[in-house]
Specification:
elongated; 18% strand; single chain; 4 helices; 176 residues; alpha+beta
């Protein structure tokens, strides 16, 4: 009987938490749309647009009214990511680094964020002013485009070299 009452008591809390999750996802989508609009207005995507225009195939980008770009960094495709490294120490909050990179291996956003934060801290230890500042470093990683990986060319080159070796061995064997 007590288990039933406990389950009934948990139901409103579970519904509230699920609603908060939905609200958070909606706010993230609004934030992403706002940032994309600002990037387009300020012209920071002009270089990206030129690179996309020169690429052999179109990226898997969000279509207005369609599905957003998959934010998962897993998979075997190329992911163009935009990242920010943040300082969250009280009264010292700031964006301390931004950049874009291509991720060509399967990972998670948390693992990739940790990697770029560690690399930044190794290059700029003087900017960590107080002991323990590392715990106030946060990262934000967003996939802005996805591309399929091109086929491996070195397999073809290796087969060609092996054929040349085979032909040389046959020529040497016929001479002997």
């Amino acid at each position: 009987m007590i288990r039933v009452i406990a389950q009934v008591a948990k139901l409103p809390v579970s519904a509230f938490v699920a609603g908060c999750g939905f609200f958070t996802e909606t706010m993230r989508a609004w934030q992403q749309a706002f940032e994309c609009g600002l990037d387009a207005i300020t012209g920071s995507l002009t270089q990206l647009g030129a690179a996309v225009a020169e690429s052999p195939g179109p990226p898997s980008q969000a279509v207005p009214g369609g599905d957003p770009i998959n934010q998962d960094l897993g998979g075997d495709d190329l992911k163009l990511v935009k990242y920010r490294i943040l300082q969250t120490r009280r009264d010292h909050e700031s964006v301390i680094a931004t950049g874009e990179a291509i991720v060509n291996y399967a990972t998670t956003a948390a693992d990739y964020g940790g990697r770029i934060a560690c690399e930044w801290m190794e290059r700029h230890p003087e900017l960590l002013k107080y002991p323990g500042d590392e715990k106030y470093i946060r990262t934000f990683v967003r996939v802005i485009a996805r591309y399929p990986k091109q086929p491996k060319e070195y397999d073809k080159d290796q087969v060609e070299v092996l054929r040349e070796i085979r032909d040389e061995i046959r020529e040497t064997a016929t001479k002997v």
